[in-house]
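Severity: low
Component: inverse-folding endpoint
Summary: output formatting inconsistent between runs
Steps to reproduce: submit the following structure tokens with default settings.
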């Protein structure tokens, strides 16, 4: 049996995958995106309140949501490998809107938080706490003076944001690759 025959036997009509496609489009991906939106709101709130520990935890939780979203997007992508070539347009019609929604949400999340991190760095770069006066500073050695900025006080917060940002960019790449594969598949089946 040739490899092409074997592959075509494994592919199924869209109607067999329709329930899975609808579940991704109406439940799975929108739920992940809603969680990501809630993390975004919490991250902004904790940043404004300067709750660095809570901000760090929220970055970690948002990272987990991004990992789950990535896994779900990859699972959704496998549907295109299982569906018969002539049914790819039907599957695309169902999944393209949710894919576009995911891209937009990730883009918004990255844009808003990149701006807020930049603002935070600018406003806190030379911030010295009121508790350390010039007189106290003159009596202490340089190693004893602590500058109270969020990025020196809690490096974990900054690192967790960097990790989250990388995960979001990776997810964005996955979605774009997914889109490219769909368009290539449609082109070759036409």
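Observed output (run 2 of 3):
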């Amino acid at each position: 049996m040739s490899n092409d025959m074997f592959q075509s036997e494994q592919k199924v009509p869209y109607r067999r995958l329709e329930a899975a496609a609808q579940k991704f489009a109406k439940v799975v991906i929108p739920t992940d995106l809603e969680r990501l939106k809630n993390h975004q709101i919490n991250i902004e709130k904790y940043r404004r309140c300067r709750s660095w520990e809570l901000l760090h935890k929220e970055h970690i939780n948002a990272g987990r949501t991004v990992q789950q979203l990535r896994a779900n997007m990859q699972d959704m992508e496998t549907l295109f490998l299982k569906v018969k070539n002539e049914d790819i347009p039907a599957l695309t019609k169902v999944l393209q809107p949710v894919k576009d929604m995911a891209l937009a949400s990730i883009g918004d999340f990255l844009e808003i938080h990149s701006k807020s991190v930049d603002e935070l760095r600018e406003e806190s770069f030379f911030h010295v706490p009121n508790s350390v006066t010039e007189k106290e500073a003159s009596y202490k050695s340089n190693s004893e003076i602590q500058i109270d900025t969020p990025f020196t006080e809690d490096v974990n917060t900054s690192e967790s944001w960097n990790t989250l940002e990388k995960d979001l960019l990776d997810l964005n790449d996955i979605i774009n690759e997914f889109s490219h594969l769909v368009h290539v598949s449609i082109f070759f089946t036409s």
